[in-house]
Automatic annotation (TrEMBL):
Top-level lineage group: Bacteria
Keyword Membrane: yes
Record-annotated membrane-spanning stretches: 21-42, 62-83, 115-132, 144-166
Gene source species: Neolewinella antarctica
Protein name, UniProt field: Membrane protein
Keyword Transmembrane helix appears in the UniProt entry: yes
Length: 172
């Protein structure tokens, strides 16, 4: 009889990379820096700041500066929710590209947890960059979003997903 989805499930003891090291420090630093950036520039921000940017990185829509707090709050939410998604009680992910068996369950679980940890870093970096840049532009200290930086981070996110999909298939 299989131990999968029982209290003896071997995936429950799989170490979570988000619990320590750079997988924890980098996203946490991004969250702190996004809050700190908005807080430090708050008094210099006009009541109306850029809210949306066109494809060249130039502002095209404006809103109240209070909306700037959405980015750090969203960053905190991503940090927290992806950490919760890796909670041992929830660590029974299915791998959509391969069938999870007792023989490959720990390998598949490890790959999935590494994917979540790396995505959390990239998403928190994107949100911290957006908070920083929006506050800089709103305070008159910047010109626009750097499209190359944003495209690099988004490309990195999709590359990480593709690499982990390949690793899951290979680790059948």
């Amino acid at each position: 009889m299989s131990n999968l989805n029982t209290p003896e499930d071997p995936r429950l003891t799989t170490p979570n990379p988000m619990d320590n090291g750079l997988y924890r420090t980098i996203p946490l630093a991004c969250v702190i820096l996004s809050f700190a950036t908005v807080a430090m520039l708050w008094t210099e921000l006009p009541d109306t700041i850029p809210l949306h940017f066109d494809v060249t990185g130039e502002p095209e829509a404006y809103a109240s500066k209070w909306l700037l707090w959405i980015l750090p709050l969203l960053n905190l939410g991503v940090f927290y929710l992806l950490a919760k998604a890796a909670n041992p009680a929830w660590q029974k992910y299915s791998a959509p590209l391969v069938e999870v068996t007792e023989e490959n369950a720990v390998r598949q679980q490890t790959i999935t947890l590494q994917l979540l940890a790396q995505l959390r870093i990239i998403i928190c970096l994107i949100l911290a960059y957006l908070a920083y840049t929006s506050a800089q532009i709103g305070g008159g200290l910047g010109k626009g979003l750097s499209i190359p930086i944003l495209l690099t981070l988004v490309s990195l996110m999709f590359s990480v997903v593709a690499i982990h999909a390949y690793r899951q298939i290979k680790a059948k």
